[in-house]
Amino acid sequence: MTSAIVSGSGRKGRKRSRPAAPSFGWKPVEVTIGDVVPAGSVDVTSDNGDAMASNHYDDDSFAHRASRDLEAEPGEGVGMFYGLEVISGDQYRMITTPHSEGSDPSSITRLLVVNSPDVTTNNVDKNVQTVRKQETPARNKSKKTKKQGDTASQNPNCAPSETRSTEPSATAGRTVETCKHSKSGPVDLTTARNGKISSKALEDDQQSDTGRSVAEGSQGRQRSQQQAQAMQDAWLMQTGGVSLDLAICEALVLQSFWTPTPIQAATLPAAILGRRNVVGAAPTGSGKTLAFLLPVAQFLLQKQESMHINDEATKDDSLQALIVTPTRELALQIHREAVSLLSSSIKKNSGCGVLVGGLAHAKQSRVLASLSAFLRMHSSIDARVDVGADAGLRRNIRLEISLSLRSKRSSLRDTFIDNLHLSSGEHAHLNDLSRVRFLIIDEADRMIQQGSFPQLARILDAVQKANPTDDDDDEEELGEEGTDITEEDGDTNRLFGLPGIPGEAKVTMLNASILQQIEEVKNGSKSGPPVVEEICSGEEDVEAEGFEGGSDDGSDPISLPGLPPVYRQTFVYSATLTLPSSGSALQSKKKKRARSNKDVDGAIAEILEKSRAKGTTKVVDLSHLDKRDKAKSVPITAQTDDRSKANAIPAGPAGQFRLPPGLTLQQIKCTQRHKDSHLYAYLLTTDAGASGPSLVFCNSIAAVRRVGATMQTLGLQVRVLHAQMQQRARFKAIESLRNGKERTVVVCTDVAARGLDIPSVASVVHYDVARTVDSFVHRSGRTARGMGPGAVGSSLSLVAPSEDRIHGKIVESLQAKFESVNLDGRLFKAAQERVNLACKVVETEETERKTQQSNKWFLDNAEEAGIELDEDVFEEGLAGGDKRDRGRLREGQLAKERLQKLLAEPMQTQRFCKFLSTRTTSNHRSIAPSLPQAGGNQARRNKKRRRN
Ligand SMILES: Nc1ncnc2c1ncn2[C@@H]1O[C@H](COP(=O)(O)OP(=O)(O)OP(=O)(O)O)[C@@H](O)[C@H]1O
C-alpha cells in the first residue's frame, strides 16, 4: 500500500513524480504532514541497524536527498519520518521532525518515507499501546499548526519553543499546544507532561514577583525539561523511532547518556515498538542492562499515565517485571540501575525490589514487608488527589524484582519460589505472577549451567502457570526433561544439547516446523515431543513477519477475572551467547536425532520454550567479530524475523568474541610459584597494574584466601570475594572497589566475573588462567567498561606451564594479541624477596590460627557438656610446641620484622619494560633509568645477542 489518505495539509493532492525506489527494495512513498496512512502501510518496528536507512533518510545529506526526491521548491521545508501515531484502530499519522536542528518544525510540509509493502496490519496493531503514548512535545510542535491554527506563529511574543503550554488532548491523551503570554514574559511549558503540570507552571509564572528563588527554581526546571527533551530527540533519532518517556530521559541526562550503545539501538525498537522477545548478545560493558531496563521503564511509565486517565479500571498493582540474575551482586546492581532510571518519576520508593539470598531472615522479611508496605502506601495515594509535577506518577505500584539464583542457602529465594505456589499469604503480591509483563534472564548462558537451570525452570514454569500462553499439557514432561538431560550427558553442570567447552551455550532458535510439532503434540494430534530443526538460512530470504504475539494469534493468555490477559515479553541477554555456525548446527541436528528426538535443542531455545515466549523473537548478536560469514548460515527460525539475520553472526571457529575496544590484553609466562611475585610487582610497579582498583581472579576459594592473605601481608589494600563469604562482607568488597577512595585489590573467584559494572576498575588479573573462553571474556570485561575514550583497562594472564594449553586455546579462539609484560629483573628479585617473607608470615599465622580455632572448639563443646578438660587435649600452638615448632614460629616472627623493614622502603618503580613506568607516586621512588634486565634464560639469550 503506497497511497496515503491526505488530511489537513496545504500540500494535499499535489501531484509529483515518484522518486526512484532505493536499492534495498522498499517502495518510497511521499506523504504530507498530517497524512493519515492505513494500518500496515508502514513498518513501525524499524528494529535493526539498517532500519533507519529503510524507514527514513537520516544522514547528513538528508535535506539534499529529501529535497531532491520530493522535488522540493526553494525554501520548502521537508522532514523526516519518526514513527507513527495511532489515530484509530487502523489508521496512523506520520510523526515527523525537521531534518536539522533549529529548523522550524511548522515549516515542514512534506516528508519522504520508505514504505514496506510486507508489513501486516497485525504488526502495527500490536504496537498501538506503545505508540499511543509516544507523542512528544517535539512532535506536537509540528502538529500545533494543524490543531491550533497557527496562533503561536502569528504572535511575535510567542516563540515556537518558549510560549506554549500544553493541555490534555481529547484524543489518546496527547498534548496539544496553545500559546500563552504572561506579564512576566514567555514561559516554556512545551515539555510539560500534562495539564496539571501546565497549570502549576502557569501559577509559578503569575507569581513570578514573589521571589527570585521561585524564578530560579522555575528556570532550573525549564533547563532540565529542555535537556530531557533534547535527550528524547537524540534517542529518537538514533534508535529509529523510539521515543523514550521524558522521565526516563531525565535520568539519562543525569548520566549524560546522549547516545544509545549499539546493543541498545539495535534492540530497543523491537522491544518497545515491536513488543518482541529479544535474545541479545553484545560485548561486556556495552550497555545490555539498559537495553532490557529501558523497555520495562518505558512500559511502566506509559502504563502509569494511562492509569492516570483510566483510574481504577486499569489499576494493576501486581508484579510487572521479573529479572533473574546468576549472582546476588548483579541483582543488586541491576536493582540500583532500575531505581535510578525510575527515580525521577517515582520518587521515594521506586517499587523495585531485590531478592537475594544470604541475608538474615529478618532483613529478608523486611525487604518483602517493605514491598508490601509500598503496595499499601500506593493504595492510600490512589485515594487522594495529587497536585503538582508528580501528580499521578506515584499512583501505581511498579514492582520489579531481581532474583538471584546462585545461592544454595538462599532462604529468601526459597521463600519466593515457595510463594509462587501459594495463593495467599503475607506477601501475596509476590504470589501473583499472572501480570508479569517482562521476564528477563540476564547472563543467560550462566543461568543454564551449574545447577541453576532447575531453579530457573521452576520460576519460568511458575510464571507460565500464572499466565499461560500455551496449553500446558506437556508441562510435566518438559519438567522432567531437565533430569533426563543431565543424566544422559553425564554432566550435571550442563544441559542436554550443550556439548563443547563448559560455559558455552549452544543456541538454536525454534523454527516453524518445531512450533507446529509442539502445537500438534499439545493438541493431541501427534505423539512425542518435537524434533528441533535448525535452519541454516544461507541465501534464503525470510520475509518480515507480522507480529504474532499478543491476543491476535489465538494463543493468548487465559484471562483473569476482570482483567485482560497480559502479553509477556521475554528478554534473554549475555555477552557470550554462542550461536552455532552452520556446520555445528547441522552436526548437532544429526547427533540430536540419533540421540533422542525428545528435546528442544539449544539452551536459549529451552529458556524461550520454557517461558512460552510467543511472537517474534528478535535475535541481536553483536558479540562476535567476524562479519565475513554474516550473510551465511545463521540459524534462523520462523519465530525469528529476517532482519535478525543481519545481526546474527555465527560463532564457532570463525566467530571470535568481540572484546571491549579499550581493553589491552597482557600475559606473563612464569612458574606457578613465581606468580605471587609477578602479581605483586605488576600491581605495584607498572602503570597498567597500579593505575586503579584491580580484580584478581583465582579458580578456587583456597587460592583466593591464600593470594589475598599474601598480598595483604605485602601491604596492599586487599579484600577477598567468594561464594562462601557472609553476604555483608561480599557487599563490602564490591563497595570498596566502587567508592574508589583507595586503590583496592579484590581477589575473587568467578563469582565476580559477570555483570559487575565498576567503571573505576583499571585492571583484571587472571591469577589462574580462566577455564573457558567465556569465562575469560567475562572476567576481562570487568574493566574497560562503557563508552568513550575513558573506557580503558588491561587484562593480565599469569600463565604457568601447566596452563599453557588452555591459555593457547583462549588466544587462538580470541585471535587477539596478548602483549608480553617483561618485568625488570632486579625489580622482580626485590618483589620475590618480599613475597617469600610474606608467604612465611602467612603460613605461620595460619598455623597459629588453626590451632587456636581447634582449641576453642574443644573448649566450647566441653563447656556446653559441663566437662572439665585436661590441658593435654589442647593442641599446642607454635608458641607452645616442640623445639622445631618454636623454631618455625621464630622464623615467622623474623620474616615479619624483615618484611616490615622492606615495606617501609618503597619498591623501585619499573623503568624499563613493555610497560614503561615513569610515574612516581607517594609510595614509589624513582630510580635512575636502568638497562633492561630480563631474568633467566631470556637474560642469557639477550646478552648473547648483544655480544653478537
Ligand atoms: N547509552 C549509554 N551511553 C553511555 N554509557 C552507557 C550507556 N548505556 C550504558 N552505559 C554504561 O555502560 C556501562 C556498562 O553497562 P552494562 O553494565 O549494562 O554493560 P553490560 O553489557 O551489561 O556488561 P556485562 O556483559 O559485563 O554485564 C555502565 O557503566 C553503564 O552505565
UniProtKB/TrEMBL annotation:
SUPFAM superfamilies from the entry? P-loop containing nucleoside triphosphate hydrolases
Question: What's an example of a GO molecular-function annotation for this chain?
Answer: RNA binding
Q: Where is the composition biased (Low complexity)?
A: 217-227
Tree of life domain: Eukaryota
Would I find Ligase among this entry's keywords? no
Q: Which residues form the Helicase ATP-binding domain?
A: 269-532
E.C. code? 3.6.4.13
Compositionally biased intervals (Polar residues): 119-131, 150-169
Q: What does this protein do?
A: RNA helicase.
What domain notes does the record hold? Answer: The Q motif is unique to and characteristic of the DEAD box family of RNA helicases and controls ATP binding and hydrolysis.
* UniProt name for this protein: ATP-dependent RNA helicase
Q: Which organism is it from?
A: Phaeodactylum tricornutum (strain CCAP 1055/1)
Ranked from the top, the taxonomy reads: Eukaryota, Sar, Stramenopiles, Ochrophyta, Bacillariophyta
